[in-house]
Structures are given as C-alpha cells and as structure tokens.
Design brief:
The protein is built from nine helices and two strands. The protein is mainly α and 232 residues long. Helix 6 runs antiparallel to helix 9. The longest helix has 25 residues.
Length: 232
C-alpha cells in the first residue's frame, strides 16, 4: 500500500498526514455548508431560538444565570479579544525563537496575520448583521459572520498549540496542549452566543473556518518537518 501511495502521490507523502487532511477538508466543507444556510436565511430561525433559550424575563432580554456567571463569561470572551490573542502569538513566537525553531516561529506569526486577513475578508464578503442590540450584554461592532472571536481563537490557539506540541517529547503532553487549546476555543465561542453579540451559526462557522486554517498550518509544518529533530 505504501509504495502505491508514494508512487501516485509523491515521495514526501506520509500516511499520517491523511487524517489531518481529511479533517481540514471536513472543516472547510462545514464552513461552506453553514455559509450557504446563512446566505439563504435558513439559519435564522434556529439562531433566534438558541438566543432566546439563553434569555429570561418578560421580554426574554436578560441572560439566564446569576450575575457572577455573566461576569465570568465576559472574562472568558476576552480570551478571544485582539489584545489577548496578540499577546499569545507574541509569547509563542518568543518561545519558538528561544527554542531555536525560527522557521516555526515565523510560521506561527504568519498563520495569525494571514488568519486576520481571511477573517476580515469573510466578514466583508457576507456582511451579516449581528443580533439586535437589545440582546447584547457586551460591546460589539462590525459584521457578524463568521464570528471573529471564534475564528481567531481557533486559528491562534489551535495553531500555536499544534506547533508547540511538535516539540513535546511525549504523546500525553501533546494531547494535553491540544485539549487545552480546544477548551479555550470552545469557551470563547460559546461566550459570544451567551452574550448575545453573535448568532450560533456565526460561532460554528468561525470554528470551522479557524480549524481549517489551523490544520492547513499544521500540515505545512509537518511537510517541512519542523520540530521533528526535537523528538522522534
């Protein structure tokens, strides 16, 4: 089987790159599927139902849960803010440079900057309005789809974790790094829905687009064999 794959796909093709390639294709397909639903207006009914499910009161405008929960979720949503993401990318870039992984460091920076351009381009392309301001419990502006916080969190946290994991000596450490990145990305996205500043489809679309971008960067790092000299 392996000689056949090498013959038809080239000498550098590796079977272990097959599953992330499939995941990237699935994420990209998922984004396009959600985008189609958004453009046709089919997602609005479900989006509105989810938003109202998270509201209470006579007019269903008050977020469910106690005040401390609302404050905690505002803290969580800040993990996807431009300031925190910039600090994260800078910290990882510095770590990779000190670890003498300069190519990987510039790949990390390039993936983040490229992701910003893609996110802004998608927002301008779809130009979807956010939920009505009466639902907002946090400051938000700009277009809604895809969610910038959800997409950039996926791009930054998943890409940075995937690159750092390539330097980890043991599988359980790599799994831990990726699990933490997935958890943070998930919490940031969910916080945007709870705070009423994004539709659920905005967040899921952002996750899908961000995951596809992160997997693309991981595949590039793997193809370049970055970090592999640190562990077999």
């Amino acid at each position: 089987m392996r000689p056949f794959i090498r013959q038809h796909f080239g000498p550098y093709f590796e079977l272990r790159l097959l599953w992330p390639s499939l995941l990237m294709a699935m994420a990209a397909w998922g984004f396009m599927k959600i985008a189609g639903e958004v453009l046709e207006g089919d997602a609005r009914a479900v989006d509105l139902w989810i938003l109202q499910l998270l509201r209470t009161g006579d007019k269903q405008l008050t977020p469910i849960g106690p005040l401390w929960l609302q404050e905690a979720i505002r803290d969580l949503t800040a993990l996807g803010s431009p300031a925190v993401l910039t600090l994260t990318v800078g910290a990882v870039w510095g770590y990779l440079v000190m670890a003498r992984q300069r190519v990987m460091a510039w790949l990390a920076l390039g993936s983040a900057l490229g992701g910003v351009l893609v996110a802004f381009g998608l927002k301008a392309l779809f130009s979807r309005e956010r939920p009505d301001a009466v639902f907002h419990t946090a400051v938000a502006s700009g277009y809604s789809f895809p969610s910038g916080h959800a997409m950039m969190s996926a791009i930054v946290y998943l890409t940075m974790a995937a690159l750092i994991a390539r330097l980890a000596p043991r599988t359980r450490l790599r799994l831990y790094v990726m699990a933490v990145a997935l958890l943070i990305t998930g919490l940031v996205g969910l916080s945007r829905i709870y705070l009423g500043v994004h539709w659920a489809s905005d967040v899921v679309g952002g996750w899908a687009a961000g995951a596809a971008w992160a997997l693309l960067c991981w595949l590039l790092a793997s193809r370049l064999h970055l970090g592999q000299e640190r562990h077999p």
